[in-house]
Amino acid sequence: MSADLERTPRNLLVSERSSFLDPKNRISSQLVQLHFNYKVCVLLPECSSAPSHLDSALNTFSSFYLIRNLPLYELLDTHFLETVRHGGVSGLSYRTRLDEDNCVALMPNGRLSLSLDKDSFELLGVEGKPSRFNHRAKSRFVVCVDLTDSSMAPGGRGHQRLVTGLTSRLPLKTDFLMSLPAGGGASVQALLSRYDWSEHRPEVISCSLTDLLCPSPLTSDPSSLTSDPSSPLTSDPHRLLEWLGAVHAAVSCENSSSSFLSSLVCPEPNKKLSHALSVSVCGLLSHQDVQKLIQEIRVYLSVSPPGPASWASVTLHGFVDSPVSWGGEHGVLRGGDNFLSLTMFPDQSYLLHLAGGAQDTCPP
Amino acid sequence: MRRADKKDEPAVYQRVVLKNASPYHYLKVCLVVEDDSTRLSAVELKQFIITGLNSLYGEVGAALTFDLLKYDEDTLTALLRVYSRGLVKLWSSLTLLGSYQNQACAFRVLQVSPYLLALTGNSRELQLD
Amino acid sequence: MSVFMDLNVNYTADKSRLQSLIETAAHLGFSTVAINYVFEPTAKKKQEIPSPTPISELMDSLPVVQGRSRPIRVLNRLTIVMSDASHFRPTAVEYRRYDLLAVQPTTEKLFHAACMIYDVDIICISVTEKLPFFFKRAPVNGAIERGLVFEVSYSAAIRDSTMRRYTIANAVCLMETCKGKSVILSSAAEKPLELRGPYDITNLGLLFGLSEGEAKEAVSSTCRSVVLHAETRKTASGIVHTVKSCSQSAPADCEAPPAKRARSQLTE
Which one GO biological process term can you cite for this protein (chain A) (predicted)? Predict the structure, then answer.
């Protein structure tokens, strides 16, 4: 029964190449299914400062709210439900860990997902199902309700049941992150005024890179990556992702494969880019803002003079402790990786990589 | 270990699903030493980790290759890369390392992932106040 | 899974070291720790069972668990190292001052008794010597059925390479018998730098022969069930809850010699 020490928990990587011009491309629905965006990292080669429209897209990510000690029944408040029904409200419990604590997610489409431990689930007394990732004993349960459903309207049966559960049997409170659709601030003032809250702007960090070693197809003929499936970077996406990771983590690739400290090298053949720009935005980011950013990058690529290194990469990290990701239940075994990486080219083609961890459904 | 469902359409669209195909795992670790003025160079740190592998897994363990991708001497924080099949061994040797030059020490493993990219976006690091 | 717990950090009279142990545990992400008082009676004379220092006297405010907004929960635990059956006194009131009760039997006979009869929560597996006996399936299963758990502690394996061999060998031996069920992994740390994070311990559990899921349960869900087991044990199957009512006369009681005090409380 001794465990195999060479095995690691499951990980999944979906690698897709397609084009924004392909009518069947699913990029926007795939982006939405990451559900909660924690950080977006943009890499622009041969660029020293972002053009103004792109810069403004990066700096105008809408702010989000942190509400401390919010009792969950407040999410079922009549006024708040009204706001939810208009769509675009998303929220996630903060300072809660999915593999240990009770976690809550409110998705922009009005679905509320609670990931509860066994005791809390039994106390709440609302229909749910055991988590897909339970080990042996059923220790975690998921309750999913659609707040836009008629039974969840104030006074409805489902609403009453959940409110009673959350007020009398399981008075759950949590720190809650919330992002609202543009101009939605006024509709939640009443809610905010009752609790300790603060507004936060996503943090933007911009970093100019020089003499960046870059794998060759990306320096000479980037579009070949999407047209030629035999290109080493396309056929082995892990090489591309590792290189991107090295760039964003500021890890040097200038080693020889025989050096003592590190044998990490940039995929061959490679060339040096004189400069590149890396920008990251961090916080609870709304899908609208992310889509707008991607749109601006597409415009940027199509108007910038065709050069040997015209492409752009966007990495979007999800929240580790979100109970949902990739359109299904999400869990944390030892790390809850869920992110996507999108590499775009001037001819509107793109490479998309979607990553999931040990407790994820297969990305869409 | 690989499952691929390719759709061979004339268009450029292609989708491949890779399962457990990640060749490496990456660890973000931080060494804490009793006397917090202790400083190690990158070479010393790597040597120290190899000693740990050697004492738990012997010569075969010491031959396990891993890379020290990045190291900050001031905070003793490092990024390591190891072949996926060596992860459990490397990690457990780090866990059981308890002294550096007769001083108590501990490796704090901050994050482990099959993707280096994931180490640059950990939402558990979000600090709002 | 439930929150991470380390149900064994060693008690030390050095208050600042104990505080720093608890702070480190909170910083590593443990939501609950138990301070372990080890009591090793000798056969010759009757010794006083230590009484736990109230948590409020140890720390003014408890540290916040890493990444969370709640403070760490601290329990008291007594471990009786037994070399003779008389060392365990089922009716001793002193035991009741502790949240968790553990025994470390040193002979096969005592191990059998601990598994099948003793009203305790945790059975400690020795990690500092070669196992003096083999684990038999019957007592191990009996203990599991009664809701007891087996504990393997890892800090000895950090301190010394010989101990490391014993720890791994004895742990593997246990896992083969109990099939990874009802096992908790804890530190038994004396110093903050001997503590490891919950995910580190999960990974270490693989060396002991646990699966990934079992290893994670060993620092979370299984710990939770043993804490619940202790609560029900103390409250007679969770139905009757007894509270000492003589709080007024308590200070006077404390002055009395331990043997007398015990008797007076028993007859209340």
Answer: endonucleolytic cleavage in ITS1 to separate SSU-rRNA from 5.8S rRNA and LSU-rRNA from tricistronic rRNA transcript (SSU-rRNA, 5.8S rRNA, LSU-rRNA)
